[in-house]
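Kindly inspect the following:
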Amino acid sequence: MSAVAERIEGLVHAPGGWLGPIAARTVDPEGALAATETWLAGSGSPRLYAEELYRQPDGTFRLLDLFAACPVVGQGLVQNPEIALTILDDTEHRRPFDPAAVLAEGEQLLRNASNYRHGLDRVRFLKQRWTAHIVSHDLRADWDQPQVWRALSDLADVVMTLLHRWVWHAGVGMTRREDACPVLVVAFGKHGGREVNYSSDLDLVYVAPDELDDATMTLGTRFCEAFGRALEEPMGRGLLYRVDLRLRPYGGTGPILNKLRAFVAYYDLYAEAWEVQALLRSRPIIGPEALHPAWRGLRERTCFRRTVSEFTLDEMRKMRERIDEMAEPNDIKRSRGGIRDIEFATQIWQLVHRVDEVETTLDTLRRLEAVGALPTSTVATFSEHYTWLRKLEHRIQFESNRQTHCVPSAEESKRRLAVLMGYADAPAFDADLARRRETIGRLYADMVEAPGKSDRLAVLALVPEAASWLDGLPDPDAFYATLRSNRDSLERIQTLVWSFPASIPLLRASIPLTEAVISGEVEEDWSGAEDYATMRAGTLRDRFGHAVIRHALDPGGDLAGDLSDMADATLRSAAVQAEYPGWIVALGSLGRRDMGPQSDADIVLLVDGAQTSAEARASEMLRLISDWRREGMPLGGDVRLRPDGGKGLLVRSFRALAGYATEGMEDWERFALGHARVIVGDAARLADVLSCTLIESDRSTRLAELLKMKRRIETERVPPHHVWRDVKLGHGSLSDIEWTVRLIEMFAGAARRPEDSPELRARIRRLVDRRLLTVMESEPLQSALGYLQEMRFSVWAAGFGSEVLPENPAKLGLLADRLGGKDGNDVLERHRQVAETVRRIYLDTVARLTEEVRA
């Protein structure tokens, strides 16, 4: 047994030989014993503390293990012998790391501080005490590695929160408690990503509110300088953290404190690709509450509202290569196959896939897996190796408080490191490290270095979602080669994949449509032949796809008209191929030429003569449409608006329609027929249809019944929480515009004539000409009509599956990109303004008509 062990045991009134076996279980028995002896000597009560060692063998092993494995923390225990007692005591050791409780403990320490520097010393004590707690749990594997990183990050948050208040009030001299510090402290890097290690620098920036006056800005700058000194200056207990402020605008040459608008301008105009990547891992820590969401909005807008171009990725890769060239081969962070490779690849894919609301690397990997961006095998491999390498990084840093990431070459140091990592010897450790780095390097190359490899990998590094459709096409290599060499083509693909996922099934199903997108022909007018006798589902599907994709890439043009033309072509083709002999009259959005991507074709089938043969041909025509829809043609025919609805015959004669209008037609059917437009048959017979819409008597009761029906639609088909966000049927929706126009036509003597356009825009202008709508009403209605039609398309194109404005901030962000809003809140506010205006005009119209029909 060593002489040191004997001396320590001699302090205890008990048989000897108990300490040596405990020390022998550590990575460095002699070093552990020597540190223990130094600790006892500095305690002021060596015999009392030695008795504690004897009484608590489990705690003694924890303490000696910490002394042996982590000399830098052991030095803190020598400075503060009482901290070691928290490692010895089982109950205290099991105490969880609760940031709120640690913060409260720190606040109590500061309340008892005698002066400013004494307060700083108390914060250093707090950090030493809880760092020892974390290290002990790390060594014993009581906590998994992500829990260790989170605790270290939370401890840094607590320290900065305490110093933020202490420096402002006691250091800068703002003694009045109500004078809150106006400076927001934002963490970047490991701290921003909640992955702090034992020797991390803190990458910080300081942000001030835009409205701050010059005098307070000067005071804020003084605070920032004092805050940095409080963190960095060595005192009796050493420094707290090294601080790096070079991520502020213009780096080391820029002001230490900047207003928020300076950050916005810098990121909009000057930030390089690596600075955007760095912003990805930024997080407000402490400061004015109003600035926290503002900073998060800046981060989201800068990182996730831009297309990540191949040029940007090249710049990021070059930066990574420069770091590679400067790294030593045994650097497990910066050199190939190290920690930075995993972090870099993960962040690149996070930017490409716009994966937000995550902080840690492991969480980001899991989210990338969940959205289908990375396969489970890659996520599992990266997660395992990242966790292992971060643990190794910590074990390397246990030796001293230096920010080193290099595996030591000295034989004894290598042996210690191997044992701390759970290996029998250094060769076994070296072999496993080499295997892991080789695996990481290979995966990194596949994910990030694609431009040096195949065309496919080069494209998928930028648009990984494209694999799900391009790989299934004949000769996909040709498509990938074209995309790699043609930036315009690649940008079209990126736009559709990221902003208009509803287009992907259309592209996946059609080689011609994919070719048109890649070549750019999709941006031209449709040039397909109108051969109704031979038109099939594929042609109709491609025509639909051409219209919506063209509009997605260039919002100009008349999408509603294009989709209506496609529906007309479908119905005419079905009529020709089924040899249907009668008329097809469009109602609803098709009648108004106001089709949306999810609209069905509302139609009424009429004949001028016998119905029997026409009925069979109509059934065949509807069967054709149904078959085409199953084959991918995105349009259904709906004949439920025919006389007697689903109970009636498919086809009615014009005479029968006139009789039905006289004897049994309900007012909502007259309302619907007001949108009639002839698609197949002699257009002159439209007069016979429109004549059925006239209301000659009992106008007050009929208006009341229609308004009752409108209220039922709004309450039964629209959930209450959607009533202001349903673009089609809610308050201030397309339905309100339609009802405003139709009610005036029906009850103000402005019945639509056969020669009048069925489109709402033209009908609104006609009502203005008739002085039944004012210009102050018509202009907002025309503007709202265009806005709501575009919103209906954008909601569909983003893949939301409804015609309701979403509440999710990420989804609203996609709409903001499409509609030119600043952010999701801007989209909601604009929609609220439009909807409230439309609703007011509709209600004013209802009130006016109600008064007129009662007169």
Notes: Strands lie at 184-188, 201-208, 242-244, 257-259, 283-286, 583-586, 601-607, 637-638, 651-653, 677-680. The CA atoms of residues 345 and 448 lie 6 Å apart.
